[in-house]
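Handout, tutorial session.
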Amino acid sequence: MRIIAGIRRGRTLTAPEGKATRPTADRVRQALFDMLLHAPWGGRDCVEGVHVLDGFAGTGALGLEALSRGAAFCTFFEVDRPALAALRTNVRDCQMQDVSRVQASSVLKPPRASTPCGLVFLDPPYGQSLPAQALTALTAAGWIAPGALIVTETGRDEPAPVEGAEILAERAHGAARLWVWRQG
């Protein structure tokens, strides 16, 4: 697993042992960022200069990819100890400590935000209906900016992560399905 593009292109990322963390595959991240940058509703402004939230961060691959591609800042949420160790190692090895913060807390019970985020990645464990719970908690704590892009990875056969959202894009990649919508 590595950073695909940007200033840290090619940087190898560490992942914890075992199956508790399921990092987003390089090809899926490439497809996602291609979509963000080239879709009619997307563009460079979706990533560059934006504050990003990487919830259920695991290795931090999504947030680090965004930082490598010009995001202004990323807040990572993770609670699993081995994943936290890998995440902190990856942030350090990518030299992104000055533009990121690792929250060793649940995205389901976030602290109050100081800056709302314009791009939110949620890659929770599959099959537990966690995206809707996380969005409710993040919205209440002020983490999501009006009009923010929300990107969620679910299992391929799971329904849309939130009801009533106008889905901008939906793509299946292997066992995963990516969903993108704009927060109202």
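The second record follows below. Compare its token runs with those of the first.
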Amino acid sequence: MKPTLQLKLTPSLTLTPQLQQAIKLLQLSTLELNQEIERIVQTNPLLELGDSVSYEQTHDKDSMAPIASDEIASQAESYEETMPSERNELESFSSPEENADWFGDHETFYNTREGHGDEWDASQQAIMPPSLREHLAMQVSLSQVNERDRKIIQILIDSLDEDGYLKQDLHELLEMLPAELGLRLDDLNAALAYLQQLDPPGVGARDLQECLLLQLRALPEEMLYRDETILLVEQALDALASKDFRQIKKLFHCDDDCLRAVQQLITQLNPRPGDAFNSTVSRYIVPDVIVTKVDDAWVARLNPDSIPHLSINQLYADILKRDRNDSAQMLMTQLNEAKWLLKNIQQRSETILSVSNAIVERQQAFFEHGAVAMRPLVMREIAENLNLHESTVSRVTTQKFMYTPHGILELKYFFGSHVATESGGSCSAIAIRTLIKQMIQEEDQKKPLTDSRISEILGGQGIIVARRTVAKYREAMHIPPANLRKTV
């Protein structure tokens, strides 16, 4: 064919930088929004964090066209594509060594090991709680252990995980250490036996069974049912975990009272001895919306603490009003960008509020009676009511939180699947999960409800739920099956 040139008009969507920014801000959480604003403020001198000048005071209505929320929604998809033996060992271990300079040639190796070794800086304890390794190192530094043995213990301390377990096999650890050190497996075993006598009880265990046994052996010998518990953990821990009480009674010839006391004693032990030393930073959620009751109806309002206090710098704004020559062109561009940012933040807040109010309007029974009264709701219903795209509702409800009488909840919490009822209606999956949880909480723990029985009870209430659906909801709430919930 002969090549030809043709002109063709094709409609397409073009995302302006302002529209891209509006979509981006809409899907950010409050924390991410504040971080983004701080970044922009550092690059734009026309913006400042404060209350000096509001958006309304500086916005020129003739210079910018408003961004409609449905325009943001209709172009959201295309934007997303562009974004980018123990005692013997202890006795031999505690005895002084003949060669005190045994570690003289290898000091550098041990100094590079993780941890503080035998040095303990008390000033650090005043700043923050000690870590597990620091806590153990302090105990070793205050003991009468000689230098050589102390450094062997430090090797094991550095090999512990965050829960206080020694997951690494001693044979493997010995092979990793330099052969010039002359360490033997007996040295590591003796050091481990010493480590396992330190606080917290159970530290240095290789597995859960050893961890529990270390804690039980640390209890006073005269403690009631101590020996029986040790025997059970040594020989029938798996049976106890699966709550096979009949087999346990048969093996140990114990009655219900003994078995109940042993079970209670085990539940008081700590399966993660190092967990108390794991310092974690708490992240607090600032709700975007607060729901309150006004005139017998629940309504939503924006949380002022979640709205960024952003304004335009008055000094620069006055300069631009007086002088609009070419030298001020850069500042003028930054002023327009600042106005767009304020506009987009305002648009974001208004969209969140409108979606929240639509949710609250449809979930009045939930705010009055709790999750058991949750009605089925899908995002399409909210989108059609507000004349928004469904993807916009999805963005608005992601990582946005609402303060309610029943706690701080993500807006997505109010949406979910539904189950049919005998009357032809529907029931929210959240309400069904709440009913299942209430049944299990009120059940006879000696005869817990099976998934089939729960399904039958719900059917008697007119809610048609299959057994496998009950099992799915129960597992989603991290509730064990009936055989594991059974008690003596």
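Points raised in discussion: The first strand starts at residue 47 and ends at 49.
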